[in-house]
Amino acid sequence: MMERISGPDVVAAWGIANGALLAILIGYGENVFAVALYASSATLIEVIALVTWWVMRRHPAWAARSPAPTRTRASALAAAVVALIGVGLVWDRWMALPALYPLAALLADRDGPLRRLWRVA
Amino acid sequence: MTTEAAGRERWVCPDSALRTGGWLTTSDHKRIAIMTMVTALVLFFGMGALALVMRAQLAQPDLHIVSASVYNQLFTIHGSGMIYLVLTPFAMAFGMYLVPLQIGAPAIAAPRIAMLGFWLYLLGAVAILTGFAVLGGAASSGWTAYVPLSDSVYSPGHGEALWIFGTFCAATGMICMAATILWTAIFKRGPTMTMLRLPIFTWSMIATVLMVLGAFPSLLAALTLLSIGRMDPSVFTQNVWNVGYQHLFWFYGHPVVYVMFFPFVGAVAEVLSTFAGRPFAGYKPTVLSLLAFAALSMSVWGHHMFTTGQASDGYYQLTSTLLTVPAGIEYFGMLATLIGARLRFPVPMLFALAFIPQFLIGGLTGIMVSTPALDYHFQDSYFVVAHFHYTLIGGSLFGFFAGFYFWFPKVTGAMLREGLGKLHFWLLVVGTNVTFGPMFASGILGMPRRVATYYGVPGLGTLNLISSIGAAILGMSMIAFAFNVYVSLAFRRPSGPDPWSGHTLEWATSSPPPPLNFTPEWPFVRVTSFTPLLDRRLRAARAEQAKIQAVP
Description:
The complex is a heterodimer. By secondary structure, chain A is mainly α. Chain A contains six helices and no strands. Chain B is an all-alpha fold. The longest helix of chain B is centred in the first third of the chain and has 36 residues. The radius of gyration of chain B is 24 Å and the shape is globular. Classes of the chains: A mainly alpha, B mainly alpha. The interface between A and B is large, with 56 and 68 residues.
């Protein structure tokens, strides 16, 4: 039994362990904010477990392959977008406008994930 | 190491990969990990330098080397830098490099996301440090950024806003890396590598990334709340958001401590078992205890809030004390691995052995400060500073260096110098204990943390002077470390693929490993347990013995 344990099983069990600790927390009468916070975290873990379990059952080959190119600009472009938005948030909003350039480049990137998704669709 | 192995120990990079662009646009998990590690190491030295300035200021009562305002910026950036930008990225870099190798995967899952994680982390570091260059200086409200210190009234400059943005980016980067590591461990294991054949280090990374995914979003929520509060300070006049911010922050703030040491517990376990020449004792109980430890760590955040009077003391004390059970199982596993073994003592083993008692001091004092009756006394004193530095330096950093010395030959193909390594080790042991040991006494005498100076309470001057001397020794140990890395890379002594007789799959491939980790020349080894290379050696030894016995 133990030998056949899968990755999603581990994630789900870990989420359930957190759920058990959450139940004890509720028993101690902790305030709603703290309970809701812990519950949302445990739920997030269970959602991850469900997604990985679903992928393992339905698309195991897809999950195991490595389709990314050896080099990719997409990550740097996405980070540049975030950086320029950050400048706009910290100083003035118009300063975020140049973010449109790396965003356009990201959308147009031949090896980028967005173009790949478009092709798949 | 054989001549043949020495000749094979380096793979030839394609021309494109040698260019800077080859690194900056890479999707190779090893390169992403190396870039993360190098960035974190540079920042580690920077944050350490800030600590030396603080210790110079505190060496004697009433010194004014820097102003109180600058001192506030120093401890804020030192604390947040070490946590958000150094130790957490160290942990993720270890996982990013080693998990695919240890499980027999050719690559990391979603390498673009992993690379985005690195870029966001770098962006976060730049944003936080840019605070020193803007009017009003860097953030100065501590790594916790409690209101009202961090609101727009008390922190009006751009430094605090940059800190919020930088911390948000760095945390998001770590979430990206954690997600790719978890996906890799679940879906990309090599043939015959079942979950219960994963090495201890990989299990420690699984527990770590589960905590990242479960807890780090709470920090993002806290930072968003802080940003809203800076636009509308009335938000924090309501108790629900005021204490709510603390809940959000500490729901991240406690598990992150475990994120910063779990991978190094795994590293220490690998080092101990390798140099004991036997599998780690109590594999399954240790794996279960790692997961239980991680789950419990998610439930103890309220013990940072005892003095608010708005946390269930009984629950958080219970769960905090329960942590000793899985911690004890891991400790017994380590000790059982060592007892009766024929030990070797190269530098990684020294760091691993020193981890055991020093981390114990950090852990046991943690139980003390998670007891409400004691916590009310120790709150915001130097006792707490001593406790978490024993956890993060006595524990995490020693575990990190154990792993660094252990896997450096795998990553670079060169051995670190043993003599310089031992100098680094002994200076670090002495420096750690001389710096942080007296802080327990300072705290008991009533010295509060986060003060730019102090006045003549008898004994405090001497204790602080000892701590400052210890900090200087720590600084010297880091110079020895940096010199060792430089010498070892500049004047290489080739390591060969497996200089330590390692137990796990990464030692089956070349040093450094080829782009897709395993090739026909360096094939994947059949896995029959969590120590596949040890199994292979034992099978070979048994076959050899049988051959000898068969000879009449």
